[in-house]
Hints:
Blueprint: E1 2-5, E2 10-13, E3 21-26, H1 37-55, E4 59-66, E5 72-74, E6 78-81, H2 82-90, H3 94-111, E7 119-122, H4 127-139, E8 143-146, E9 149-152, E10 191-195, E11 215-216, H5 218-230, E12 234-240, H6 244-259, E13 264-270, E14 273-275, E15 278-279, H7 290-295, H8 300-308, E16 316-317, H9 320-343, H10 351-366, H11 371-383, H12 388-402, H13 406-420, H14 428-445, H15 449-461, E17 464-469, E18 472-477
Parallel strand pairs: 3-4, 3-12, 4-7, 12-13, 14-16
Antiparallel strand pairs: 1-2, 5-6, 8-9, 9-10, 10-11, 14-15, 17-18
Helix pairs in contact: 2-3, 4-5, 5-6, 8-9, 9-12, 9-13, 10-11, 10-12, 11-12, 13-14, 14-15
This protein binds adenosine monophosphate and zinc ion.
Amino acid sequence: MLIYNSLSRKREEFIPNVPGKVNMYTCGPTVYHYAHIGNLRSYIMEDVLEKHLRYSGYDVKRVMNITDVGHLTSDADEGEDKMLKGAKREKKTVMEIAKFYTDAFFADCAKLNIKTPDVVAPATSCIDSFIEVITSLIEKGYAYEAGGNIYFDTSKLKQYYVFNDFKEDDLAVGVREGVEEDTNKKNKADFVLWFTKSKFDDQELKWDSPWGIGYPGWHIECSCISMKNLGEYLDIHCGGIDNAFPHHTNEIAQSEAYVGHKWCNYWFHVHHLNTNSGKMSKSSGEFLTVSLLESKGYDPLVYRMFCLQSHYRKSLVFSYENLDNTVIAYNKLAQRIAALIKENDTAPVNEADAETLRAGFKAALDNDLNTSLAITALYDLLKAKTNAATKLALVDEYDTVLGLDLTKAAKKLLEATKEEEKPISDDPFIAEIEAKIAERRAAKAAKDYAKADAIRKELSDKGVTLIDTPQGTTFKIN
Ligand code: AMP
Ligand code: ZN
């Protein structure tokens, strides 16, 4: 498998440290608000990567943190803590909003068929290991105390800027627009490992430490949670491209200073989802969430397919017009699969055909996770000259990676048509209600939830209440 590695800026053959096993780490969400669909683009593409590795036969262990402390409004260790800001906004405690938005994040992931990592660790549950690593970094001479805080000394490294050829003078980490320079730092690029003194001293969560009561910096959490669960040798680390600097750069600095050798071999960065008006963010502009898409009648899996239609290393522009095109593409796929199921072909799977066809699908994903070509391979499969059983088996096999629930969607379509074939009632009012129920079923199958809701309302205005049951929709005349 070839994968682009941000460290070497090249596509490289993926070779894990231990043959057959993959240690994978993912930067988790900062749980001060809902995840926007840009954040979720990163998690969708990382999920496809994990599933493709598993599909390729690797035994994957994946770990993710939950940032519930330490992420400041500027990634350069300045500003207010994002969690505290969220808590103030909602007049709740930090732990209350952490719980609420962690649950909301995983609910969104479930809707998008994003698998929960094998280990999920909130930063607040790992304070002991942060203290242990920071203590060791001080002992080894990589960290110093200044003004009450502990800083990582970037001048002790042979190379600090690993992802880009930044020049230190061009990149003044501590000096950003509207942010005062932290005069405690020996070097501009130094970053905080542990805070005891911040201008924002009303931080809600604090812990005792050898350097006084305080709280960890953001970067240390990912290094420690990764090393604690995956050991000193990490195969692949994932995150959105904005995390490459300073977050991942700092993770590498402190992890390698701590273990004394190369830490992570491959860095997988997902590029951003933008809107026509620019970058999507939780704090400004239109806040697009999975729930917002659902309220507009879109199935979350259509958004997953929208992401899969583009390469993860290209920025992607979101628009409802483009999403509508994906709705059409998704429904067409479901209709074609429904037609195959209807064929009721009893011939067994043709293994030779299956082998040739899956090679195309695998090749697409082995080529730096080319998901749009993998979807083309799915279309090729549906058009291929082989029997229905082979096609249906491969649709399900591909879907273990793509996660689009295509067979499920096809079966729903078939159910909807079955219902439509029922005899029509002699009573014209009942016949009208049944026709409307059938129309609503078709609308739901086509993911046109706005139309489905309009039909429910139309019948309700006529005194008819619809009751949705797992066996179908019944009604009650009021
Ligand atoms: P956060 O919750 O802010 O810590 O971010 C969670 C993940 O989303 C990180 O991997 C970010 O790099 C990623 N991310 C942030 N904004 C975007 C975006 N517009 N498009 C794609 N990924 C993003
Ligand atoms: Zn991280």
